[in-house]
Amino acid sequence: MPHPLPALIVVDVQRAFDEWEAAGQRRNNPDAVARIVDLLAAFRASGAPIFHIRHEGTKPSSTFRPERTGYAVKDEAREQGGEPVIVKRVNSAFIGTDLETRLRASNIATLVICGATTNHCVETTTRMAGNLGFDAQLVRDATWTFDRVGPDGEAHSAEDIHTITLSNLNGEFARIVTAGEVIASLAALRQ
C-alpha cells in the first residue's frame, strides 16, 4: 500500500551557490530558499518524509568539495533529527545512492522536488523520478538557476532557462506545482 503522504526531496541547497552569487553570477527566483523553508515546515508539521540531497564535488576546482565552505548546507535548509542526508556525486540523486531503495522500502509513491539548480541536479533527479515511476512534482517557486552561455556563445538568462526546463519536464516527467499548492495539498491530506 502506498505511503499516504508525499516525500520532500531537497536538492543541493548548499552554500556554494551563495559563493557563486558573491562572485557575480546572476540567478533567478530570489525567494526560492524561503519557499523551501515553507515546504520544510509544512512537511515537518505533517510528519511527511523529508530527504536532503547534498552534492559532493569530485573535480579539484569544485566549490562542492567536502573540504570547502561551499559544501555546507545553507542554515535555513538544515536537516533536523531523523531526516536522512543522501550524498551524491553526479547530477541525479538516484545514481550512486540508496535514495530509490529508501523510497521503495517506505512505499513512497509521490515525490515533491525542490532545490538547486533547476536545469541541472533538480532536472536530472526529476526526470529520473518520472522514469522510475514516481509521481514527481517539481516546485517551480522553490528552485532556481543561473545565467548561462550556450555552446554558440549566446547568453541565456536564468529566467529563460528556468522556464524552459519547467516546460520540458511538465506532463511527461512531472507536474509543475507551487509551494502554496503543495502546502494546501498536505493540509488537506491531514484532515
UniProtKB/TrEMBL annotation:
Classification via Pfam families: Isochorismatase
Record's keyword annotation contains Hydrolase: yes
Domain of life: Bacteria
Domain Isochorismatase-like: 7-178
Keyword terms of this UniProt record: Hydrolase
GO MF term (any one): hydrolase activity
Protein name in the entry: Cysteine hydrolase
Organism field: Bradyrhizobium guangzhouense
